[in-house]
Write a structure and sequence with these properties.
This protein is mostly helical. It contains seven helices and no strands.
Length: 201
Amino acid sequence: MTDTSDVLLALPPAARPARPRTQLVATALAVAGGAMLIGGLLAIYLHLRSAAGGTTASWLPAGVSIPGVPANMALVTIVMTVITMQWAVYAIARNDRRNTYVALGLTLLLGVAFINNMAFVYQRLELPIADSAYAVLVYAITGTQLALFVAAMVYAGVAAFRALGGEYSSRQPEGLAAAALFWHFTVVAFAVIWALVFALK
């Protein structure tokens, strides 16, 4: 009869349990909540626009013109951040720290440029907020997206500091990937807002 204790001792150790992706899941839930918020505001906007006649002439208050070029530049600027943010995720997944830092720095710099561009859009809009339902909704929708974008910048800034501290690597890129997920959501939200509020008016 063989001794089974020798056989059991020869077995390899059990595999380590998979690390839960808590931060990524929490960020995905925040993205879902933000998408519902922006979607609800846009639904109200489209409903009131339709009730007002559904045409730009009947919906826009008299004397108001939407600044097309600054809004287009804001869209171009924020779309460029998708490339730099994804570059950071790609670089950290390959343990390329220098490119990660450069990409995050460029992303945050372009984020500041986007906020500056939106300030210029508001200045050129010359639309008092209490004048009409249109004014209230434009400021509510774009202001909500801008607040979410500032939150994304803070998230990316914290991720950048954690990357500088060596917390992220090719074995553990989840935090930077979660920051990128939230960032990409704010970019998509602005693209939809640009199409419905600035392009179609």
